[in-house]
Amino acid sequence: MNRFLTFLTTTLVASSILSCGGDTDQKDPNENQQHSENILFEFDTYNQKISYCIGLDHARGSFNAYTDKRVQDLFDLGQIRNGMIDYLAGNELQIDFMIKDSLLDLYLMENGDVNTEAVSMRDASYCIGMDEAFMLVSSLVGRKIDQDVDVEYLIKGVDEGFSGTNTPSIPYMDAKKEIEKYYGDINIKNGESFMAENRTIQGIYETESGLQYEIIQEGKGISPNLTDSVMVHYTGRFIDGRVFESTIPSNIPYQGSMMNVIDGWQEGLMMMKEGGQRRLYIPPSLAYGEKGKGSIEPNATLIFDIELLSVKPFQQ
After folding, report:
1. Residue 29: partners with Cβ closer than 8 Å, 6 or more residues away
2. CA 148 from centre of chain
3. Cα separation of 237 and 247, whole Å?
4. Could you report the per-residue pLDDT of 285-303, keeping only the tens digit for each?
């Protein structure tokens, strides 16, 4: 998805993407409709239900992304769906999984256009489907729930999510709420286990609040107070290694008041000096708690690599 988000961002300034002349690899408008029959599934176990919800939510997010008006003529939804389901079901793949990245690199151009001469829309879309499925599976593995998921119902959710129907077996918002609660409970368990193991590692320190940190490089400048402003570079990750935010790719540091950052940042930054670098391990009570924020799930334990570039003292 990160590859596509980069591509989608580029389309905002590349108007040529809206009309790809010369593309003879048109989508079959009926290819996706055969999966849109309103047949409601029944669930005998919670595992079936939550597996369906996970598949539905992920597929619906993908459906919305690839039907965005800026790119809706550049992808074959039926083939994205097929790529996802084939990968998840363990079916014989239409395209070798090992070459999907190479094909997508050829299809998604840096200027926000697509190259249908190098790769057909159909093949590129199937590769995107495999990529989406791979990321979904990776997220389940990272949460340590991949063995608990009912694959049959995960696929049912994916199929309905890509059907475009407004009447899935579980309404989209209800499915999202169910997932948030499920992931929130898992995040507490996984976070506590991670922090318990982490505190036994040499070089990891823990404060009274529960914040853990690792000193990468000591600074030599001043330390910020709570009323000061700071300039920092940072990368934020979940405990399974997934990056959710970073200033590094853009090379544009964060600048803002210490009063506007999470408690874990406040405490960690006040222990640092300008020029210093630390890795902060922040429990949910010092981050975004049980509500989460944006892509950060409820009760998520977070890891931040932070470099304190400068401190701007508060001036009355």
Report:
1. none
2. 21
3. 12
4. 999 999 899 889 899 999 9
